[in-house]
Design a protein that fits this description.
With 119 residues, this protein is mostly beta strands.
């Protein structure tokens, strides 16, 4: 999706969740989940703050995931022309959810629906 901010514009692609636990009995109630958000075609300087990313599970619980890039802390900005793969990790329950990006705003400006399957 293309996201337009006051500081610039960026195309964002979301993939995940991956790295979920599969094939355990009894089925666990939660599992580690990883998402990758790829930011590319940035114009301007796009802000990236850890608090801007949240996950809401199907029970309405709010999660504050960890962010990293290649094992290091996430950058505070995506510079113009750069491509960044942002890794988002959390432990989530099975079921549906929504990954949200607020981008320095009070309300999310972008969101991605997903399903966690751990059976």
């Amino acid at each position: 999706m293309s996201v337009v901010l006051a500081a610039g514009r960026v195309t964002v692609t979301a993939v995940g969740p991956s790295a979920t636990t599969q094939g355990l009995y009894p089925v666990p109630t939660t599992t580690p989940c990883s998402f990758v958000l790829t930011f590319h075609n940035a114009t301007g300087s796009v802000p990236i703050q850890p608090g801007d990313f949240t996950i809401v599970d199907e029970m309405g619980n709010l999660h504050h995931p960890r962010l990293s890039v290649d094992g290091a802390p996430a950058p505070s900005r995506i510079p113009a022309g750069a491509a960044v793969n942002l890794l988002i990790d959390d432990i989530l329950p099975s079921g549906s959810g929504r990954l949200r990006w607020a981008a320095d705003a009070r309300a999310p400006i972008a969101s991605w629906d997903f399903s966690v399957e751990i059976d």
